[in-house]
User: What shape does this take?
Amino acid sequence: MLSKFLPKGITVGICVMLAFALLVIPIISKDMLATAALPQDAQTACADAERQAQSDINGTTWMAIGCLTGLIGYLIAMQEPNPPATHLLGKSPEYVAAYTDCYRKKGKEIKTKNALYGCLAGTAAYVLLWVIVIAAAEEEATDTVYYY
Amino acid sequence: MISAKHTLIALFVASAIFSVRSYGQSTEKKPVKLGSTLLKSENIHSLTGRFTRIFAGESAGDTTRGDFFYWGSGNMHIEVDYPIDQIMKIQTNVTTIYYPQSKIAFLLESNNPVILPLIPGLLAAIRPDYGLSDLGFQLKRQEMRGDTLVAFWGAQKGKKQVGQYLVAELNDRLVYTHFHAPQLRSRMKTFFSDYLNVSGTFFPTHIRSTIVNAAEVATEMIQLEALQVNPQIRHQIVDFKLPKDVHVEKKRW
Assistant: This one.
C-alpha cells in the first residue's frame, strides 16, 4: 500500500529500519547482557557497578532521545558512560577490572534499551501517522468526482 | 492542489529536521572539574593530606586509608595503604591504577574529565560560592534562620534545571548542603565539620554525606588529617611513571 504513494527507495528504507529495530537490535542487546561467571570479588564489583550505573544514567532521557532521533538516538546510546574514580579507590585488581566492564555494559544497556523503546515508539508513531494520512488520501481519491 | 504524496514528503522532511534539532539539544551533562577553578581563585597551587574514607551502602561497606596529593590543572595522585596497596593517578581524562605488590596496572581512558575523589567536597567548602557557579547554579535567595545563614541555589538563567541546592553557613563556615534532583530521583545531604586553619585557610576535616537515589541509600564519611597547602610535591609523584615490568591493562570508561 505504501509503495502506491511513496517512492520505492523510501518504502525500502522504512522496511529495513523496522526490520533492524524489531529483529537485530534485541539480539545485540541480549548479547551485551550476557555476563560470564565471575569470582566473588568480581561479582560484588559487578553488582556495585550496575547499581551505580542505574543511579547515574537517566533512562527516561534516553527513551526521549530514542523517540525523537530514532535510529540515530540508538547509535548515540551505544557510546559508553564515565564512572567516577572514587568507587575504585582501595579496591583489588579483580574488582577494578570487573567494575569498569560491568559499569560500561550496564550503562550501555540502560541507554540502548531505553533508546530502543523510544525508537520503536517513535517509529510506530510515524507509521500510524502515515497510515492515517494514506487512508485520508485514499478516501479523498474515492470521493472525488470529476465533471467534464 | 497539494497531493498526498507531496504531503508525505513534506512530513518526512519536517520530521528529519526536527530529529536533527532534537539531537543537537539532547546532550548529557558533563562532569565539571571543580578543583582547577579553585586553584586559580584561591591562590592554592597544591594540597596534600591523609584521608580515611568510610563508605556504607545497603549491601556492603568498606574503609579506605591513604595519602593524597593534588596540584594544578586537576592532577591527583593517591597512595592507598589500607586495605590494599594501590596507587591511583588522575590526569584529566586518564586514570592510572597501579598495584605495586602484584605488578598489575590499569590505564583507564575516558572521553570526559574524571570526577576526582575526595577533592570536590573539600574544596567547595572554602570557595565563596561553594563552587556552585561552575556547576551552573546561581543564588536565588537567602535568609537567616537563628544564627545560621541559609541560601537557596537554582539553575542559572538559560541553563537546564538539574536540581536545587540548600546551603547552610554558620560563622562564615559551610556546615551543610542539601542537593535535590527530582528528575534523577537523587538526594544528597552533606555535613562539613571540624574546621582546621591550614596556612590561613579553614578546611573542613570531617565530611559526611548521605546519598539517596533510585538504587540505594549510602553514607560516606571522609576524615582528613595532616593537610598542607602549597607544599612542594616531590617529583616522583608529579612525574610518576609505571615501572617497565608491570602488566598494563588498557580500558575505556
Notes: Residues 1 and 136 of chain B are 51 Å apart (CA to CA).
